[in-house]
UniProtKB/TrEMBL annotation:
<protein>
    <recommendedName>
        <fullName>Glycosyltransferase</fullName>
    </recommendedName>
</protein>
Length: 269
């Protein structure tokens, strides 16, 4: 079996052409040799960082046509797929990651200053919009009569806010943060993407029993409300954690969903 997952382009033409050629040739060879070909389409509408869009469209169209099975990471994405036989699989609970002792000391001291603490981790470019929303997140909690602080663990080091907001931001460095280690200090995890994709942050947050916040108008908002694991900024941000269904979400979404779906479609795992 041949499985394709991420095939994001790079900002250089020659490597992009080489990669696209290898993907298409491998897919053609798999079909000719009657080898099962599976595409797990993480980003339904476009690559994470779309460079050289005509090449991207050609590569994605080839996989869409040649794959025996095309899989997306949430049922909400199926209406956006050209393949009517696409199926939904999922990630599962997050078990790895860490938080350094030095960062834990800083986080505890920071959390003691605020009524609510929001964690934002990941990248600060392209489709990733969370870091740009920090002033809006702080303002929304203020509207609810709550003082909010924001912990950033990722690539927001160069983003500068107004002095009042800066005083509410703690920047730490963790390559793979373990969200469950912060369950006692963090009240929400904020995430917002500008494309049709399922961030692994959602599974990490559910594992840690921390609700996810997002902005209404992106597809993640629908998923959070459907699954009962988070809410939008305009929702009731004062509700207790008991109101969320983290354990149910992790029961409904597990790592074995991929093997189950492939077996149902007659593809040997």
């Amino acid at each position: 079996m041949v499985v394709f997952r991420y095939q994001n382009n790079v900002p250089r033409l020659v490597p992009t052409l080489v990669m696209a050629s290898l993907v298409i040739l491998t897919a053609l060879k798999a079909r000719l040799m009657d080898v099962s070909l599976v595409w797990i389409c993480h980003n339904v509408d476009q690559d994470t960082l779309p460079y050289f869009k005509p090449i991207e469209r050609l590569r994605r169209a080839a996989l869409m046509r040649l794959a025996h099975a095309v899989l997306v990471l949430d049922p909400a994405f199926l209406p956006y797929m050209p393949r009517r036989d696409a199926r939904a699989v999922s990630f599962g609970a997050k078990r790895d990651g860490s938080v350094s002792a030095e960062n834990m000391v800083a986080i505890r001291a920071f959390a003691d200053r605020f009524d609510r603490v929001v964690l934002i981790a990941g990248q600060d470019k392209g489709k990733y919009k969370a870091f740009a929303r920090i002033p809006e997140v702080v303002a929304r909690f203020a509207e609810a009569g709550l003082e909010a602080g924001v912990i950033t663990a990722g690539m927001a080091g160069d983003r500068v806010f107004d002095p009042a907001t800066e005083g509410r931001v703690l920047r730490i460095v963790e390559k793979n943060i373990r969200e469950s280690a912060l369950a006692g200090q963090v009240d929400f995890i904020y995430r917002e993407n500008a494309d049709i994709s399922m961030p692994y942050t959602v599974y990490a947050a559910a594992t840690a029993s921390i609700p996810v916040l997002t902005r209404r108008g992106n597809i993640l908002a629908d998923i959070l409300e459907r699954e009962g694991i988070g809410l939008c900024l305009d929702g009731d941000i004062t509700q207790p954690r008991q109101a969320y269904d983290f354990s149910g979400f992790l029961k409904r979404h597990s790592w074995d969903s991929l093997s189950r779906i492939l077996t149902e479609q007659g593809i040997e795992v």
